[in-house]
Structure prediction request, 416 residues.
Amino acid sequence: MTTKAKQKSPALPEDTAPGRRQLLAAGMKLFAKRGFAGVGLREIAAEAGVSLGLVRTHFGSKDGLRAAIDEHVLDEIKHLYATVIEHSGAEALGMAVEDALDWISRDQDALMYARMALMEKSPGSQALFDEILSIMRQFVDTNAKRGLLQPGVDREWAAIYLVFDFIGPAIVEPFAKSAFGKSMYSEPMIAARNAFMVRAFTRGFLKG
Amino acid sequence: MTTKAKQKSPALPEDTAPGRRQLLAAGMKLFAKRGFAGVGLREIAAEAGVSLGLVRTHFGSKDGLRAAIDEHVLDEIKHLYATVIEHSGAEALGMAVEDALDWISRDQDALMYARMALMEKSPGSQALFDEILSIMRQFVDTNAKRGLLQPGVDREWAAIYLVFDFIGPAIVEPFAKSAFGKSMYSEPMIAARNAFMVRAFTRGFLKG
DNA sequence: TTGGGGACTATACAAATGTATAGTCCTTGA
DNA sequence: TCAAGGACTATACATTTGTATAGTCCCCAA
Prediction:
């Protein structure tokens, strides 16, 4: 619908190549599970159903593939929280969790890839962390402007704690089945988490 | 001082082999930095100042080396918190941080190795997570028995949140220099963290 | 004194790795 | 119609990997 668009959808080069999308998805899935160094390009190509050489065609190298996946995941996280930071109050954090659940159901491996990226210090991982921290700082600032922050609170550390709260479940997820019998992102866990979170953030949980 | 101990300190076989200790230390350091699959045995042996073959002598395989390091780090964490769980109240968490600082200064790479172990789901990592969770559950129970827990608090999620608080700084550490200009375990960061933590845990930081 | 065993080294080997090269197929624009 | 280019495959290559084997050195008990 923009200008006089050519008939057969020219589309971006990324979209016209099925193999490229398959490689991105396969790389995201396998890197998330076993780390960057833990997976070979042949396995990724097999998982994607394409040949080994196609990695070079589209991404140049293994590092190029990682960079492309990093970019993709970073974009998703940006979009995920684009709306959340406009809200405020402890309930908004619950909303953030709901949005994250939507995201996970849509793009299963992206969250676990982000988890891995934060662990291995790759070029893209610093950008990922900075983005998450930036989102939480904005959330704190929004709350402060609306008078929802308790007086005297260290805003920087409030933001850092929100980062912990966002990262925490993702880090713990691989151990959750064994430790709790269910996923951190299962319905009962999310409900209990939100209840605790709202309470702890507004009143704490220990007596002074 | 036990029984009639032989003269020249028979010691455990682990202690009599300098190469073994060197390999453990080198493996811990390099695995922590680049992950299990990201480091080769030759590099570890070189860092340890021993030959490649010695890994096989002492640990049998690369996985054997990891298992030995896992065990070592798990023991350290157990000892670290053996005293902490006897204390209670929000201040005890500050004490825990102080103890962790001591630990870090003594065994620099152990914390970052634990961080890596939690990320890569190895056989030992589940045990590590279970231990940390267990410690936090005990802390919550101790507080509950002494009436320091606010009424109606979800104890399980309180423990989980304490896990986040313990893991969080370690996860963030590699990005801290760039994002905050200092280590998460530097003096000013620790001080600000403790202040925020005591406040947030007892009163929260958002208005209801 | 001697022989057995543990700590340790040097080297060989097959498998797996990332990368490079050559080429096929098919669409598309001049 | 035809050539140019992008998506894709097949295969070769040098390097690195974990593991295995053979052997040296040295302490200590018999």
In short: The first helix of chain A runs from residue 13 to 16. Residues 69-203 of chain A form a domain with the Tetracycline Repressor; domain 2 fold (CATH 1.10.357.10).
